UniProtKB/TrEMBL annotation:
It is found in: Cell membrane. Pfam families: Gate (PF07670), Nucleos_tra2_C (PF07662), Nucleos_tra2_N (PF01773). The keyword Ribonucleoprotein does not apply. The chain crosses the membrane at residues 6-35, 67-86, 92-111, 118-138, 176-198, 255-277, 339-359, 365-386. Residues 282-471 form the Concentrative nucleoside transporter C-terminal domain. This is Sodium/nucleoside cotransporter. Its main location: membrane. Keywords: Cell membrane, Membrane, Transmembrane, Transmembrane helix, Transport. PANTHER family: SODIUM/NUCLEOSIDE COTRANSPORTER (PTHR10590), SODIUM_NUCLEOSIDE COTRANSPORTER (PTHR10590:SF22).
Length: 506
């Protein structure tokens, strides 16, 4: 083993000396591995000693807990107010999105299932974590550079799909959506299966969940599921905690469902990137959505029962795939497992596009009878959701077309919405006129980024049925209580707007 380590160190040094810029990816991966190994070693051999050193500080904190928390809250509020005053003095329009954050939180609180039981620690820490992530990603040079670099690497990685799909489909790959975007889902699913087999995904999910749990005070099971949603889909993530679903409270199950609606699976993200959607924005949107999903879940459906899972010691992360014997079998099973997902995506696109065409034809016929033949589903959505888009920080003149995308995403699915956003982006890049007649052909780059965040997630009515159908086998009474099903869809849609508003106020 020492010889292998020495060989790798020699290889690493050689690669860095020859071309450090080319070896950046290797440096990042090696650094992560070293930090992880160092943490495990320190925790194993010196964990108890370090814990004992903090016992006096912990006692002091417990004795003055109220004062310390009070001072901390006042300091944070003072810094936030100061920052808002200084920052919005340069860009006053940001006050609109800040007002949107306050309004959306108030709306969710008003319709909360148990207003008196809201754990504000979870709510504020969740929003705070999202704010800090957004601040790092957007307002700091290292954060902006790192996520742009990560997005570029993901794009390069996904381009390898063409080698497989072009062999199977030939020239059809460059012209037909089904042969261009859907093979990415298969490739990504296969890679995820390999990462699960190696234990990399489980380790990453546990670390992310640990950060959210110690700050927000949520239970280990719901936190693990929400953290898993950053990487896997809304039906796969709950499988990470499959043995514990039967004993989870209604609030915990609600958090699992909201977490599934808040983010998009890595495999589906690959398909969206193939549309031309900015990869770094999609990645940061999924990461930022996780803590806010827990926060909004605990605000809309607070915990009123006693959780059976108060410590992570007895919680084991289950794997969402079958037990493979080697990496090749893991890759094969991951590809096979994606067949259903690919078929589901294709079938839903066919069905919803056909339904949308029928709805628009019907609305046009009904409107034509009274002198409004041009009315469509998109036009209705543009007026219904325009206030929401405007409160997210979209300029008024662009808020109607963004509202169309939000309505399409909520009532149909996110694929159709991202496809429309991709067309708008393509029109801007190709230099089309901003307006042709009364129809807007493209939106600003800032609005495109906001839309990318707003559409990032599975929050639509069809997804609600998928989640309930996929999970109710464990405990039907908990998954479909009288007020929970509509509550999840409505509150999650509001959550997404909050996610964008928090980002825009940065």
């Amino acid at each position: 083993s020492n010889q292998n380590e020495f060989s790798y160190v020699a290889y690493f040094i050689t690669a860095c000396v020859l071309d450090f810029e080319r070896a950046i990816a290797l440096v990042v991966l090696t650094s992560l591995a070293v930090v992880s190994k160092a943490y495990d070693l320190v925790k194993t051999y010196k964990g108890d000693s370090i814990t004992k050193c903090f016992i006096p500080a912990q006692r002091c904190f417990n004795n003055f807990r109220g004062w310390i928390i009070g001072v901390f809250v006042v300091a944070v509020l003072a810094l936030l107010v100061t920052w808002l005053v200084v920052d919005t003095s340069k860009r006053p329009e940001q006050l609109i999105s800040f007002g949107g954050v306050c309004m959306f939180i108030l709306v969710i609180f008003i319709f909360s299932a148990h207003r008196t039981a809201v754990a504000w620690r979870s709510v504020f820490w969740g929003l705070g974590l999202q704010f800090c992530i957004g601040l790092f990603v957007i307002r700091t040079e290292p954060g902006l550079t790192s996520f742009q670099w990560l997005g570029e690497q993901v794009q390069i990685f996904l381009n390898y799909t063409k080698n497989g799909s072009s062999f199977v489909f030939g020239p059809l790959v460059s012209d037909i959506f089904a042969f261009q975007a859907l093979p990415i889902v298969i490739f990504f699913s296969s890679v995820m299966s390999v990462l699960y087999f190696l234990g990399i995904m489980q380790w990453l999910i546990i670390k992310i969940a640990w950060v959210m749990q110690i700050t927000m005070g949520t239970s280990p099971t719901e936190t693990l599921s929400v953290a898993g949603n950053i990487f896997v889909g809304q039906t796969e993530a709950p499988l990470l905690i499959r043995p514990y679903l039967i004993d989870m409270t209604k609030s915990e199950v609600h958090a699992v469902m909201v977490g599934g609606f808040a983010t998009i699976a890595g495999s589906v993200m690959g398909a969206f990137i193939s549309f031309g959607i900015d990869a770094s924005s999609l990645i940061s949107a999924s990461v930022m959505a996780a803590p806010c999903a827990l926060a909004i879940s605990k605000l809309s459906y607070p915990e009123t029962e006693e959780s059976k899972f108060t410590s992570e010691e007895n919680i084991k992360v289950a794997c969402g795939y079958v037990d493979e014997q080697n990496i090749l079998e893991a890759a094969s099973s991951g590809a096979s497992a994606s067949i259903g997902l690919v078929a589901n995506i294709a079938a839903n696109l066919i069905a919803f596009l056909a339904i949308l065409a029928f709805i628009n034809a019907s609305l046009g016929w009904l409107g034509g009878l009274v002198g409004f033949p041009s009315i469509t589903f998109e036009i209705i959505c543009s007026y219904v959701f325009m206030p929401v888009a405007f409160m997210m920080g979209i300029p008024f003149e662009e808020s109607f077309i963004v509202a169309e995308l939000i309505g399409t995403k909520l009532f149909l699915n996110e694929f159709l919405a991202y496809q429309k956003l991709s067309e708008l982006k393509s029109n801007r890049v190709n230099g089309l006129d901003e307006m042709i007649g009364d129809e807007r052909q493209w939106i600003s780059v800032r609005s495109e980024i906001i839309c990318t965040y707003a559409l990032c997630g599975f929050a639509n009515f069809s997804s609600l049925g998928i989640v309930i159908g996929g999970l109710c086998e464990y405990k039907i009474p908990h998954f479909v209580p009288p007020s929970l099903s509509p509550c999840v869809a409505i509150h999650q849609n509001v959550f997404l707007t909050i996610s964008i508003s928090c980002d825009v106020t940065l």
